[in-house]
């Protein structure tokens, strides 16, 4: 039989224990695993920096309320499975995966850990990542890429505005990229509509680049479209130097190429997509299931022009185009 003094002690102890337990739960350190596919291994790299900054703005303190484990593939697809296995071994609560190819590898590795993908290609349903954009239905969500003849046509129109004399365009693409087939068809259709000859330029490894550029530039009137394939991102400086060497005006899909000396970039802001990924991580850590978070499309697009690169190619950029640019690099 419990006397009055014992009963009060038990109740008081329970009342004290409840907030302590709640406090302990709130203080649990959430574990986040991040696979960076091609960007340099640096906390100040713009895309990773945007992700880290957004987490801080959401109130997370690295090392106190969250522990973030980064893995860098440096554009090497053969590392994806190994790095994802390492992140799973870290017992992460959520994974953030850059780009579609490593996302496919992550989806194969786990169907339980929530995965937020930054730019999961233009058709994530086709690659089995989600059931639909509006209702992902599994453990994967995040952001998709842009697609369609209109976007590819915008690339070509900008190229022709910079270099009016072009008559043919080459589309540089990484042969291991699973999304390339659709992109090639869209780009070819857009080129045909504008009366430009089209040539697809597949690259399987870094050593292919020099010969590919040399062959394409052997005829006059050429210009290049360079998407953000991971092999190209990891070797952006070499690609932009080859474009200058072979006197090829080129438009690129990501900011990294302009930072490496490229002529012009038009496309979604990858840094903004990494910011959005941090917001999705926050929602998942607060209890929202990935299946309930629609796959987002990019909403922020950048047009950046590098006047130094234009001068090296002997090009004059019109005041009209410069006035429309989000940023002009002198």
Question: Keyphrases for this structure?
Answer:
330 residues; alpha/beta; Rossmann fold; 7-stranded mixed sheet; 5-stranded parallel sheet; 19% strand; elongated
Describe the structure.
- With 330 residues, the protein is an alpha/beta fold.
- It folds into two domains: 29-146 and 270-299, 3-Layer(aba) Sandwich (Rossmann fold), CATH 3.40.50.2300; 149-268 and 302-329, Response regulator (Rossmann fold).
- The chain contains 13 helices and twelve strands.
- The chain has helices spanning 4-26, 46-57, 80-89, 100-109, 149-162, 180-193, 208-216, 230-234, 236-245, 255-259, 270-285, 307-312, 319-324; strands at residues 30-36, 66-72, 94-98, 115-118, 140-143, 168-174, 197-203, 222-226, 250-252, 264-268, 301-306, 327-329.
- The strands form two sheets. The protein has a seven-stranded mixed beta sheet with strand order 7-6-8-9-10-11-12, with helices on both faces.
- Strand 9, helix 10 and strand 10 (264-268) form a beta-alpha-beta unit.
- Helix 2 packs parallel to helix 11, helix 3 (80-89) crosses helix 4 and helix 5 (149-162) crosses helix 6.
- The relative contact order is 0.12.
Mean pLDDT score? 89
Identify the strand order in the major beta sheet.
7-6-8-9-10-11-12
Query: How many structurally independent domains?
Result: 2
Q: Measured on Cα atoms, how large is the radius of gyration?
A: 24 Å
- CATH architecture classification name of the largest domain: 3-Layer(aba) Sandwich
Structural class: alpha/beta
Overall, the morphology is elongated
Query: How many extended strands?
Result: 12
Query: Largest beta sheet, briefly?
Result: 7 strands, mixed
The span between the termini is 86 Å
What low-confidence regions span 5 or more consecutive residues with pLDDT below 50?
A: 1-27
CATH superfamily of the largest domain, called what? Response regulator
CATH fold label of the largest domain = Rossmann fold
């Amino acid at each position: 039989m419990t006397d009055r003094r014992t009963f009060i002690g038990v109740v008081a102890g329970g009342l004290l224990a409840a907030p302590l337990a709640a406090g302990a739960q709130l203080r649990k350190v959430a574990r986040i695993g991040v696979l960076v596919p091609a960007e340099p291994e640096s906390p100040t790299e713009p895309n990773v920096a945007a992700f880290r900054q957004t987490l801080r703005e959401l109130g997370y303190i690295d090392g106190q309320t969250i522990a973030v484990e980064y893995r860098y593939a440096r554009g090497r697809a053969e590392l994806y499975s190994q790095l994802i296995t390492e992140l799973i071994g870290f017992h992460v609560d959520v994974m953030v995966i850059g780009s579609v190819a490593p996302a496919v590898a992550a989806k194969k590795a786990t169907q339980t850990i929530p995965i937020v993908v930054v730019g999961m290609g233009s058709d994530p349903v086709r690659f089995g990542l989600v059931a639909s954009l509006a209702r992902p239905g599994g453990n994967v969500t995040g952001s998709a890429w842009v697609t369609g003849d209109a976007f590819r046509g915008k690339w070509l129109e900008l190229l022709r505005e910079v270099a009016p004399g072009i008559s043919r365009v080459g589309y540089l693409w990484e042969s291991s990229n699973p999304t390339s087939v659709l992109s090639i068809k869209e780009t070819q259709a857009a080129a045909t509509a504008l009366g430009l000859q089209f040539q697809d330029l597949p690259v399987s490894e870094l050593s292919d680049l020099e010969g590919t550029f040399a062959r394409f530039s052997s005829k006059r009137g050429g210009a290049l479209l360079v998407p953000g394939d991971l092999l190209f991102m990891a070797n952006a400086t070499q690609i932009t130097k080859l474009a200058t060497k072979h006197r090829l005006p080129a438009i690129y899909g990501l900011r990294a190429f302009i930072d490496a000396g490229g002529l012009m970039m038009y496309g979604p802001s990858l840094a903004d997509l990494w910011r959005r990924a941090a917001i999705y991580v926050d929602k998942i850590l607060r209890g929202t299931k990935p299946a309930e978070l629609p796959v987002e499309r990019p909403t922020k697009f950048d047009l950046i022009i590098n006047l130094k690169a234009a001068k090296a190619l002997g090009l004059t950029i019109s005041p009209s185009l410069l006035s429309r640019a989000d940023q002009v690099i002198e």
